[in-house]
Amino acid sequence: KYICQKIIKKFQLIRYMIRQFIYKQIDSSQLVAFRIVFGALLLWQTIDYLLSGWIRINLLKPIFTFSHIGMEWLQPLPGNGMYYYFALMAIAALFIMIGFYYRISIILFTILWFGIYLMQKTTYNNHHYLIVLLCFLMCLLPANSYASVDSKIKPEIKRLTMPAWCSWIMIAQIAIVYFYASVAKLYSGWLDGSFTKGLLSKHAPEFLKEFYAQEWFYLFIAYAGLAFDFLVVPLLLWRKTRNLAFVASIVFHIFNKAHLGIGIFPFLALSFIVFFYPPETIRRLFFWKKPGEIEFPSSQLLEGRMLVRWVLIPYLILQILLPLRHYAIKGDVLWTEEGHRLSWRMMLRSRKGHTKFKVVDNKTQEAKFFKLKKILTKRQIRGMQSKPDMIWQTAQKIRERYARLGKDVSVYAYSEVAINHGESRRLINPDIDLGKAKWNYFRHNDWILLYDQNGKIIN
């Protein structure tokens, strides 16, 4: 009985300490600073898409877009509709940045951006998915409680503090991204430097190509990238190594931006730094007029408890499980791509392929190869060639096209793909009518060919 009482008391003490750790009130400067930077980056991204021709090339020029499977009904607005769509997103991003009608603005931007994310995947980027997640989290956080137009108009919403979980949820999110990015690199094509060698040769400036082609350099880049992804969050969390990790983050992300482009992601990743430094440090750097001595009301000790319990904890569990789902699917995800998306498998491999489609009239048995330019743009063809889900979607579109003409056809795909400039192999079973095949999100699609270690087909 005595031992049980001691165990119960220790459990209660641990529970109390966890509550104090998660729910204690801290200075809100980290979240407020992130809101301003995040809104500015969203504004930059949407304006860039408005002015660069991205909307015309990816949304207006195609006859249809490669939506995520199950969302085929979600297609671009006709005429100039998508320009108005992005203009509305730009206004919402500006309002997020300045904190004007913040809650409405962030919810609106989240819905619109999620729509674009689901609408097309020809130019799929992991940071598009990350923005979806961050927007969702920012919908839940009191990011407009200070240094915002809202707090000027309605002084009653002005607050100097926030519960600590507002900061920890953002740290947990970026930690998941970096951790799974490092785990995904633990394969031969990364560890032997073959991927980084090909990547650097493609993106290196002309005067650096010879230098970047040296074995020691591309191996250094490979292992430095792996080490960075694995260690950066722990090093940022530890006060003694925080500044060093910050400098390493700047070098890493600026190098990536200079060589790979990848949109706003390097700056978005750097913006998370505000959550790793003490709130007081962020306040002194960015909000020097904000009171330094803040009272932390005890009445708000468990603020957001229901939100944490019923929304954020399930959200984190889902984020941890999603990148693991490919282990439950037959085959190597690097080859099949099944379970690749939503898994932080970023800048991991080069994938090149060639795919053509044979159409057979089931009534006359007449066969001919389909000209993809009839339904796809050049960019769509390049994006589709090596990706099983997009190949399958193309076969569905070809079959639908003939069905509208009153013809019942079978569609067969002849596809060969190479990973990291290696040997080309057949990706799709050419004997399967892909037009009638089903897509399975949760299990292996048998029409995607698998190979053993000797290169022999095993299915």
In short:
This protein has helices at 2-23, 29-52, 54-60, 81-98, 102-119, 126-140, 149-153, 165-184, 188-191, 194-203, 209-212, 215-237, 242-260, 265-271, 279-286, 305-321, 333-336, 378-384, 388-404; strands at residues 25-27, 161-163, 351-361, 367-369, 409-419, 425-426. The chain is of the alpha+beta class and 459 residues long. It has 2 domains: 19-327, no CATH class; 350-459, no CATH class.
Describe what you observe in this structure.
By secondary structure, the protein is an alpha+beta fold. The chain folds into two domains: 19-327, no CATH class; 350-459, no CATH class. The chain contains 19 helices and six strands. The protein has helices at 2-23, 29-52, 54-60, 81-98, 102-119, 126-140, 149-153, 165-184, 188-191, 194-203, 209-212, 215-237, 242-260, 265-271, 279-286, 305-321, 333-336, 378-384, 388-404; strands spanning 25-27, 161-163, 351-361, 367-369, 409-419, 425-426. The protein has a four-stranded antiparallel β-sheet with strand order 4-3-5-6. A two-stranded antiparallel sheet has the order 1-2. The mean pLDDT is 93.
Topology:
Blueprint: H1 2-23, E1 25-27, H2 29-52, H3 54-60, H4 81-98, H5 102-119, H6 126-140, H7 149-153, E2 161-163, H8 165-184, H9 188-191, H10 194-203, H11 209-212, H12 215-237, H13 242-260, H14 265-271, H15 279-286, H16 305-321, H17 333-336, E3 351-361, E4 367-369, H18 378-384, H19 388-404, E5 409-419, E6 425-426
Helix pairs in contact: 2-4, 4-5, 5-6, 8-12, 8-16, 10-12, 12-13, 13-14
